[in-house]
């Protein structure tokens, strides 16, 4: 078996191989090749695992994204995708070989962050990825959707307009880009995704209504993409808002829709205030609480100095990367929101796997949680608390982009 890069001419074979790996059949693309999830694949970043007879038996790819880090920094990140091995060649080292080849290639390109969405939680930790953002579904029955009277003064002076998805592509792209630059954990949606209709709604061309919110000055600052099912369930694919006022206005709008029994908000960040805004706190039923974005650090010092920090302090991290056969000890020093990270021979405060560093990197997982779970070793009584203070963020990370 060997690993080789793909070209544009390999697209059909890659799509067929990957669907075989998952036991599915591909959708029919539009005449221009768009309208399907693979329409935005970057074929110069994809790989084939090829058997001795020349037949591809595994695939892996990557997108060129930007990831918003704590502190508002935007950093390049490889979005690993299209990973699969056909059933006849599983458990023969194909996936491991592709993952090792890919990580080496990403480093050679100068990239220091890699992210993915894990189809199975058991697979990717061994390759150094850790769950870093989380999302949940909130269902609100319409008859229990009354909002409580806020103690703060003022009401939303904006407006909501309903558009068809086909009417507002450029506007959605602009609103999403403003949102993702302010939301830690959010990924960019390159223009190619929108023009090719790749991914899931509202990028994909599936029939959807879009409620667009404009503030008092008439500036579009949020949208909710939704569809109404036969059973009276209105499902919101995603609610994108640059501030809480826009989100609240959009939530009120969809909950007031006629001829519905309930509204399902598919992607809500943990700790979101929506449930607290309802008169009946229990009306917002949480389900589907799950991991979403998994993060892998390829260069620990570069990654730690790229993000912003809310608290000054220092921490010695002993980081083990068994998949790449590396181990390093680093002194992380934070002053005035900026970090310095350098190798050190000082005694460690925390010893952890590279996957666990990925989990705490965006601030969505507290280091103390991993200490209590036995995944991270704290060498001093106050080490976990100091790590919590350093890695904590004002706004929890959230990602809802599917790739």
Automatic annotation (TrEMBL):
Q: Kindly identify the residues recorded as the active site.
A: 124 (proton donor), 403 (proton acceptor)
Q: Which GO terms describe its molecular function?
A: aminoglycoside N-acetyltransferase activity
* Keywords linked to the UniProt accession: Acyltransferase, Transferase
According to the entry, every stretch annotated as the N-acetyltransferase domain falls at 1-152
Residues noted as binding acetyl-CoA in the record, renumbered to the chain:
83-85, 91-96, 119-120
One of the protein's GO biological processes:
aminoglycoside antibiotic catabolic process
Q: One Pfam family of this protein, by short name?
A: SCP2_2
Q: Which regions form coiled coils?
A: none
| Keyword Acyltransferase part of the UniProt annotation | yes
NCBIfam families documented for this protein: PRK01346.1-4 (NF002367)
What family name appears in the similarity comment? Belongs to the acetyltransferase Eis family.
- How does the annotation summarize its subunit structure? Homohexamer; trimer of dimers.
Q: What is this protein's name?
A: Acetyltransferase
Record organism = Streptomyces laurentii
């Amino acid at each position: 078996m060997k690993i080789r890069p793909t070209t544009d001419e390999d697209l059909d074979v890659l799509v067929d191989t990957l669907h075989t790996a998952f036991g599915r059949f591909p959708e029919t693309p539009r005449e221009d090749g768009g309208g399907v999830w693979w329409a935005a694949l970057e074929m110069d970043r994809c790989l084939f695992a090829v058997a001795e007879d020349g037949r591809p038996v595994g695939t892996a790819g990557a997108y060129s994204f930007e990831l918003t880090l704590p502190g508002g920094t935007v950093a390049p990140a490889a979005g690993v995708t299209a990973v699969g091995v056909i059933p006849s060649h599983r458990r023969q080292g194909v996936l491991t070989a592709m993952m090792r080849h890919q990580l080496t290639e990403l480093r050679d390109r100068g990239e220091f962050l890699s992210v993915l969405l894990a189809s199975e939680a058991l697979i990717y930790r061994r390759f150094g990825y850790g769950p870093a953002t989380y999302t949940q579904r909130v269902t609100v029955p319409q008859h229990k959707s009354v909002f409580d009277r806020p103690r703060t003064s003022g009401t939303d002076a904006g407006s909501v307009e309903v558009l068809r998805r086909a009417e507002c592509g450029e506007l959605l792209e602009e609103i999403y880009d403003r949102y993702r630059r302010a939301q830690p954990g959010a990924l960019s949606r390159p223009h190619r995704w929108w023009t090719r209709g790749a991914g899931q709604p509202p990028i994909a061309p599936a029939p959807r209504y879009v409620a667009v919110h404009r503030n008092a000055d008439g500036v579009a600052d949020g949208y909710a993409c939704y569809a109404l099912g036969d059973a009276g369930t209105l499902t919101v694919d995603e609610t994108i808002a640059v501030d809480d006022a826009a989100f609240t206005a959009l939530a009120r709008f969809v909950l007031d829709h006629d001829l519905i029994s309930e509204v399902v908000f598919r992607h809500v960040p943990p700790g979101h205030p929506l449930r607290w805004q309802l008169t009946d706190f229990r009306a917002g039923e949480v389900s589907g609480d799950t991991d979403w974005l998994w993060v892998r650090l390829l260069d620990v010092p570069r990654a730690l100095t790229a993000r912003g920090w809310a608290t000054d302090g220092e921490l010695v991290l002993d980081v083990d990367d068994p998949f790449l056969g590396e181990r390093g000890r680093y002194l992380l020093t934070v002053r005035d929101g900026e970090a310095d990270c350098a190798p050190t021979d000082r005694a460690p405060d925390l010893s952890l796997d590279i996957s666990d560093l990925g989990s705490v990197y965006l601030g969505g997982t507290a280091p103390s949680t991993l200490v209590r779970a036995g995944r991270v070793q704290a060498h001093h009584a106050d080490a976990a608390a100091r790590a919590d203070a350093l890695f904590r963020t004002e706004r929890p990370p959230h990602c809802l982009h599917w790739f």
